[in-house]
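[recover] target loaded
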């Protein structure tokens, strides 16, 4: 297993944001992490990559106990992530943003190697034509790709994707899903938080579901979509509940087949 969580709990004072979460992640897997707003998904990411110290429990990455390791240590070990709210270095070029990712990633590259890696990565994600543009000039979809490129340039073994599809139109979602599949084909294991249900259900090998910080379901997408606890958790959002209930009836459209 590339990643193992055992009893991970995160409390903020009297608030328990993540409670006793345990799961295993196999190498090469795409794991979907879903749940209603406020379920603790991003907090769990922050516990995995060292942004927040866990209150209880353990995180094991590549066979080593990395519980509460600092974020730079996790990056050096081969874990990268994107953020729900994109965080480009707006006053640097697109290329320089990606060079930063390569310099501070698992290989800790020098500037020459980092520049070569940045060029290859920007070609991979489709941003090569904008490489000399300032990052702040990009649109939302391009900034999402830049965020992903910076993470990929760090040469990760495990990539955490936090709502990379949010704010994208149908064509952009389709293109991003195709990119995620190609990332997996390169041997990178992926956990993705996502609210676009038909996309995450068609892309993921397995789904885990959080609600009020607790893991309430885990399994194949079809199984999870029919789990009564999952449906109940989403009833506060009728659209998402309907997407889950109708999952098996959906045909693979442009998004699913990207």
């Amino acid at each position: 297993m590339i990643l193992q969580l055992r009893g991970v709990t995160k409390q903020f004072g009297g608030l328990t944001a993540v409670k006793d979460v345990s799961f295993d992640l196999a190498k090469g897997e795409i794991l979907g992490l879903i749940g209603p707003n406020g379920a603790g998904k991003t907090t769990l990411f922050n516990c995995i990559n060292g942004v927040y110290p866990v209150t209880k429990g353990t995180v094991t990455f590549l066979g080593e106990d990395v519980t509460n390791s600092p974020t730079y240590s996790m990056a050096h070990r081969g874990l990268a992530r994107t953020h729900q709210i994109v965080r480009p270095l707006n006053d640097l070029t697109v290329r320089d943003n990606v060079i930063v990712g390569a310099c501070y990633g698992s290989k800790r590259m020098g500037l020459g190697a980092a520049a070569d890696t940045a060029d290859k990565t920007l070609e991979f994600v489709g941003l090569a034509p904008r490489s000399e543009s300032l990052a702040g000039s990009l649109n939302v979809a391009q900034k999402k790709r830049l965020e992903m490129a910076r993470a990929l340039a760090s040469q990760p073994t495990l990539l955490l994707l936090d709502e990379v599809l949010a704010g994208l139109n149908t064509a952009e979602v389709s293109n991003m899903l195709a990119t995620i599949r190609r990332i997996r084909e390169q041997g990178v294991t992926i956990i993705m938080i996502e609210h676009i249900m038909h996309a995450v259900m068609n892309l993921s090998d397995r789904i885990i579901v959080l609600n009020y910080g607790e893991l309430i379901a885990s399994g194949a997408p079809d199984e999870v979509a029919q789990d009564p606890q999952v449906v109940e958790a989403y009833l506060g959002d009728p659209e998402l509940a309907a997407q889950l209930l109708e999952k098996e009836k959906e045909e693979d459209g442009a998004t699913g087949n990207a």
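[recover] notes: The longest helix spans residues 170-185.
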